[in-house]
Amino acid sequence: MSAEDKICDNIFKYIESNKNLWIERLREAVAIPSVSATAEHRQDVFKMIEWTEKMMTKLGISCKQIENSTQTLPDGTTIPLPPVIFGTLGNDKNKKT
Question: What are the residue boundaries of the structural domains of the chain, listed by start?
Fold first, then answer.
């Protein structure tokens, strides 16, 4: 077995052993009706942003929400666009990226 095969094998084993966790996270995510094209679910999009930021933070990612602009709907109503999540993983000043 090559080194690449061993790496892939370990990845697949990790995924399989954590399958229930991934399914539960997916279940949580799809339970939030965050269809951004519909105004009635815009607040749910904001909930999804919060949920995503929480998950990213649990993974050790430093997050910051950046406010976005607004959207004018066909009826003239203006609603806020969801914020953008900016995430940083690690901050070693000795590394270029």
Answer: 3-88
Lookup: tokens for 70: 């607004």
C-alpha separations of 52 from 5, 6, 41, 64, 83 in Å: 32, 31, 17, 11, 12
pLDDT digits (tens, 9 = 90+) for 3-18: 999 999 999 999 999 9
pTM attached to this predicted model: 0.77
Could you give the CA distance from residue 51 to residue 34 in angstroms, rounded to a whole number? 11
Per-residue DSSP letters for 5-40? HHHHHHHHHHHHHTHHHHHHHHHHHHTS---TT-GG
Instruction: Characterize 5-33 residue by residue with b for buried, 16 or more Cβ atoms within 10 angstroms of its Cβ, and e for exposed.
Output: eeeeeeeeeeeeeeeeeeeeeeeeeeebe
- Kindly state the tokens that stand for 32: 């939030």
What H or E segment, with its residue span, contains residue 80?
strand 78-80
